[in-house]
Design goal:
The chain has about 260 residues and is mainly β. It has a single domain, classed as Jelly Rolls (Sandwich), CATH 2.60.120. The protein is built from two helices and 16 strands. The strands form two sheets. Strands 1, 3, 4, 5, 7, 12, 13, 14 and 16 form a nine-stranded antiparallel β-sheet that branches. Strands 2-6-15-8-9-10-11 form a seven-stranded antiparallel β-sheet.
Length: about 260
């Protein structure tokens, strides 16, 4: 009798554990997608053009129409020489769009498929910034940065902990190979305890939450994030632009967000 009771209790534990594991193992659910299938312009209910700013990546941002195009279901963002806007003193002009104040993302998997055409000084990027907090306290998640004609892409995490305090552990970035002549898929998963990065479905690295008495190590469970897609030119990291390589453009095929359901 005692053995039978123990066996029954053991079976209940196993069944409960199995059910819990099955719930935990549920596949992410497609929550939001952008296929850029509009004919003339992107959906302004979702996206805005990124304004110019003082940062290296932002100093040539423009709303000039020639920096933007849509065709064959793709969003085209360009970097060009400024030969058309005499009242704009910027030597170059670049196009970028973001979902700031319109669409934000939380726990889940965000994927972008795109082709990145190369040029000396080209610095295309896909990244996330906090919707509710300034930089760097709100954190920055760089899903993809590519320099010049590189056959690799960079994926990086920034925060108060990494930038202000300059603490480099745990590892805050990695690179992965890309096909520079074709479309590649870049992804990040936002979890409560880690960020996990992928290129073409291959895991590149993970940034975990750790136990520490230092501030701002893992702000990524506190905020929602908006997405930036931008064609950047020049800067301290990528180096000088070669005008002979321009115009340069990237082609964004789609963006998908899968929400984690537990």
């Amino acid at each position: 009798m005692q053995k039978a009771v123990l066996y029954s209790l053991f079976s209940l534990v196993i069944m409960s554990t199995t059910c819990y594991a099955q719930r935990r193992a549920q596949k992410p659910v497609l929550k939001w997608e952008e296929n850029f299938d509009q004919t003339n312009a992107f959906d302004t209910a979702r996206w805005s053009k990124i304004p110019r700013g003082r940062a290296d990546w932002q100093k040539y941002m423009s709303d000039f129409d020639s920096c933007y195009a849509m065709h064959d279901g793709k969003m085209i963002l360009r970097g060009i020489i400024n030969n058309s806007l005499p009242n704009d003193t910027a030597r170059y002009l670049t196009g970028g769009i973001y979902t700031k104040d319109k669409v934000s993302f939380g726990f889940g998997r965000l994927e972008i498929q795109a082709k990145l055409n190369g040029a000396r000084g080209a610095w295309p990027a896909f990244w996330l910034l906090s919707q509710g907090m300034g930089w760097p306290d709100g954190g920055e998640i760089d899903i993809m940065e590519r320099l010049n004609f590189d056959s690799i892409a960079y994926q990086t995490v920034h925060s108060h902990y990494t930038y202000t305090l300059k603490i480099k552990e745990p590892k805050q970035g990695a690179t992965g190979p890309i096909n520079p002549l074709d479309f590649n898929t870049y992804a990040v998963e936002l979890h409560r305890d880690s960020l996990v990065f992928f290129i073409n479905s291959k895991r590149t690295f993970a940034y975990p939450r750790i136990q520490t008495d230092k501030e701002g190590q893992y702000p990524f469970d506190k905020y929602k994030y908006y997405l930036l897609l931008d064609m950047q030119l020049g800067g301290n990291w990528v180096g000088k632009v070669d005008p002979a390589d321009l115009p340069v453009e990237m082609e964004i095929d789609w963006v998908r967000f899968y929400e984690f359901k537990e």
